[in-house]
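Can't paste images in this forum, so I'm doing it all in text. The chain is below; anyone willing to post the predicted structure tokens underneath?
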Amino acid sequence: MTESVHPAAHGHLPWFVTAPGETDVLMIVMAAILVLFVLMVGILYFRLHALPDRFAHQKIQFEIVCVLGLLAMFTHMHIFWIAGLLLALLDFPDFTTPLKRIAGSTEKIAGIEPGQGADQRRPDTIASHRQTNEAGEGSAAKSNGTLRMVHSV
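Text version of the structure:
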């Protein structure tokens, strides 16, 4: 069977025009390029939305930034992403270390081993605590020649 060219067609056809029944190579190549491009744009999109998460310094700051990033991704409201980025770039001061030092010093003054809590007291403090409970709540107890106020727990 011979293939005839339409009489209105030019004598020379471009390279991308395929004959009837043959595989369209250009369409297959363009489909593969389109799929790769969509995947690359999706990866770029997810990395861009995860950018503030990489800048977060503290755990609570990281969690808030992650929530803002998810809100921005699912609502398509860019203000959440901008807020997350600004929050991640701010370096908040560490308030817990001075508070822990104050708590440790207070425990040391009270006769409690630092970091062990109120249940792990020194024996002389426990004895004075028992004397206080026998004498009455909130009264002064005397131990080792010094007068201390001991409150019942």
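DSSP finds six helices and two strands in the chain. The mean pLDDT is 78.
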